[in-house]
Amino acid sequence: LYQGKLAPFKYLRVPLLLGAIGIVAGGVLLAAERDRPGHLRRLGLVYAALAATMFATRDNLARALHTHAKPGVAAAATLLAGTVVAVLWTRRAPTATELRRLAPAGLLFGLSYVLLFEAYFHGRVTVVSPLVATESLWGVGLSALLIRHSEGMGRRIALGALLVVAGSAVIGATR
Predict the structure, then answer these.
(1) What number is the average pLDDT over the span 51-72?
(2) DSSP 8-state class, residue 11
């Protein structure tokens, strides 16, 4: 049944598809919030869509190449390559003040990559990636809790975050 052209779809299941649709719909609602800061430009949304595409590509590459390195080594190589790309993009190294202020976020970012690669080395992309997608909910929740004075929480944001989590839960529960 899954020979030939249909082989890539052999793992496709209705709950997986519904969960993925929920996650994407939630992301669209988060991006479509009308009450945006004045500094937000459409180009920022284009960059966000490109970043999401690159994250999806990274997830699949990490899983496909999981036998070639240990998770920690794979995370270190990925972060090193990302650092080189970021320095080339900005055309300058960060200042000492920038490094000091952003070090806690960088440490958490590095730890998140080690844990992410560990998860991909032990689980399928179709399970791990939707769980990682709940970062939208965590981002919304933490911003509402910690920096609520500058972040507006509208119905669309709440619904978008809930759709992302619901889609992830459907995928996780059916795997």
Answers:
(1) 85
(2) T
C-alpha closest to that of 170 among 11, 22, 9 = 22
Please name which of 40, 65, 38 lies closest in space to residue 120, comparing C-alpha atoms: 65
Q: Kindly state the greatest CA–CA separation across the chain.
A: 59
pLDDT reported for residue 46: 87
If we measure between CA atoms, which residue out of 136, 139, 145, 81 comes closest to residue 113? 81
The answer to whether the CB of 175 falls within 8 A of the CB of 126 is: yes
Query: pLDDT tens digits for 148-170?
Result: 666 666 677 778 878 888 887 88
The whole-model pTM stands at 0.65
Say how many C-beta atoms besides its own lie within 10 A of residue 137's C-beta. Answer: 20
Q: How far apart are CA 170 and CA 81, in angstroms?
A: 34
Using one digit for the tens of pLDDT, what is the confidence trace for 17-33? 898 899 889 888 877 76
Q: Would you say 5 and 142 are in contact if contact means Cβ atoms under 8 Å apart? A: no
Calpha distance 58→45 (Å, rounded) = 20
Instruction: Give Cβ neighbours of residue 60 (< 8 Å, ≥ 6 apart).
Output: 125
CB 126 within 8 A of CB 11: yes
Q: Which tokens in the block code for residue 157?
A: 């944001």
163, 22 Cβ separation under 8 angstroms: yes
